[in-house]
UniProtKB/TrEMBL annotation:
This is Competence protein CoiA. Pfam families: CoiA_N, CoiA_nuc. Residues 14-53 form the Competence protein CoiA-like N-terminal domain. It comes from the Bacteria. InterPro entries: CoiA-like_N, CoiA_nuc.
Amino acid sequence: MLIAKLESTLVDAKNAQRGGSYLCPACGQRVVLHRGTRVQPYFAHRPAAPCTFPGEGETAQHVVGKRQLAAFFADWGVVTLEHVLPTIQQRADCWIAHQPRPIALEFQCSPISREEVAARTQGYRAVGAYPFWLLGKRYAQQRLGWGLIDRFAGWLKGWGLCLLFWDVTRQQVRIDHHICQAVTGEYQCQQTWVASLAALVQGPHRRQWWPEPNLARFRWELDRDLRRSSDTLKPLQTAVYLTGHHLAGFPDSLVTTQVTPPLFGRGLLLWRIVVAAWLFEHVRFSRATAQRLGDEAFRLVGGTTTAVRFYGADLVQRALGELLADLVAARLLQRLPNGWRVVAQPQWAADYTAWLENDEKKLG
């Protein structure tokens, strides 16, 4: 904690003197001033009387980072360190008097649950503030995955869906931006460092591009994981097996290079495989049937339409429209006034092992 109350005045720890009767501005309990040679001055609650407001322990990174961030974002408006919001029982690391709405900045360095992130985010929204999360070193060292994306990713103009990290040594923001998911399920992003608020507002200049999916490796990994009895693939294999096919023998006509928001669980391609296997069990089917099967397959691949700070309400509907259009273009389906008619079956591998052996040669 950098700010404490002395009588009726707020005092910054860097200006505080030992021996004062300092109180926590949030909960009103006594706090102790810590001054040392290696760590910037800060206040802390006594171990027997922790703060009733949620927060994280004052690591050196957190103490230093809050001051750096206050300076970095100063051009957006007056910055108040550790601004207390009694109505929602929260304390923002930095509160920025930005127009048209204030910004509540959270510098997260320690572990935190999804539930707590969601509660804090909702609290800031309830008081009309924009929740702005920046992550510390422990998060910057993690591989891009659903845990990070689900809790902390948000939309930022010019950067798309992104994660922001603050490096206290470089005093710069690292932005993992334009986060998306490859058709084979991998999470992808571009990474850029910015040294000023102006550069953050301006956004990136380079063109975004993504590599083509490695289908040979994808088939090989599917077969390997199924042989290892993967718990996440078993329900998908069962669904496809009941239609007379094998997951790794999926038709090339189902392949797309489309990237998606990172909400498709095991990936868009597995979803398309399962949906197609079910659709081609019919002679004719309606839009309602297709939508029902699409939703069921989405749950089966572990998809979700909601993260803490972003959502994709029409995600399945759009993906279904693209799949049906691709199958019509491939002359496997015919569009009818009230649905679709199957005119040909896609070519599944009768002997998927032979396909895999051929793909292994491509892998080298």
